[in-house]
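User: Need the bound-state model for AHG:
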Amino acid sequence: MAAQIGSEMHERASQIGLTFAEHIAYLERAFPDATGEFSALMQEIMVAGKIISGKVRRAGLVLEMGRTGRVNVQGEEVQYLDEFSNETLVRMTTPGGQLCILASEESAEPIEVPPPYAHGRYAMAFDPLDGSSNIEVNVATGTIFSVHRRRSVDGPGTLQDLLQPGRDLVAAGYLIYGSSTMLVYAARQCGVFGFTLDPSIGEFLLSHPNLRIPENGGIYSVNEGHTDEWDDRDRGIVRAFRSRANPSGRALNARYVGSLVTDFHRNLLQGGIYLYPATASHPDGKLRLLYEAAPLGFLCEAAGGLATTGTTRIAEVTPEVLHQRVPLFIGSRREVAFVESVYQNEWPESST
Ligand code: AHG
Ligand code: MN
Ligand code: MN
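Assistant: Bound-state model below.
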């Protein structure tokens, strides 16, 4: 789905150094039917990202790290910054009238657009702060978002507006709060664009136009502490990446931060595969379809990569419940295709 629109406006939107607002304005003009609602929503997400980034950067100074004492629907401890990020995203994206309903990792039920705000044509799901358990040790975190067009006709959105497969996404992306803050997003027919926040002017500037993931990756990223919890097939796959028994013919480098956005972002730029297979404690996988696997899968495919559960393309999985989990293998085409071939018994068992 890379850069298909191929118009003059798309070329203008791809110039390095453009502000996010300029970029979105050019792209909007490539679509004569655009109403401006999508552009407005993307700008709201961008502003929320700036606010969260500022808070994350100052967290150590103002003692705003740490746990709230509450546990979320996933049974995980809620960090102060999880809550702040959640509230910021809701506050920035509901007044504008582009959304009809939202879903968040930090909210058991869908989040309604509160009165007096209008209900718009999009449904958004998000992970407000991914990797938040790393925040106290200064490791990069991120925000993941996905946008679907609503299915219901008008008025408040419904659960069905959120429970849509990744193949129907309009756009998805993430912010990463790392050594710099970046916003990376993919929109249907437009490809993948990465922006870097210039702190001296407080603007996201286009730094990575038309991003493509290397076709062959040299990195595998997995929590090998869970090895005993995997089944033999997944153990065999990871062993193959560690040894020469994979399509590259050499052992890959291991890199695992434990913050999905960060691990994914590195592999997107450098080439590699991220794996989170099913485990004994998480038999359906740990990562959540709606606001982790599906948006990153959409973006990865738009950049030329692949994303699968092992047996099914992530984009083809229709969620049945809001916080559904899936096994995830995502990244460079060659490495993910290898996983698929092992799952289809096409790779000789003796090799893995
Ligand atoms: P979150 O911080 O949003 O709850 O997500 C945590 C996820 C993801 O960021 C990371 O890749 C994964 O959990 C790490 O899990 P393990 O500790 O089992 O490796
Ligand atoms: Mn997460
Ligand atoms: Mn989170």
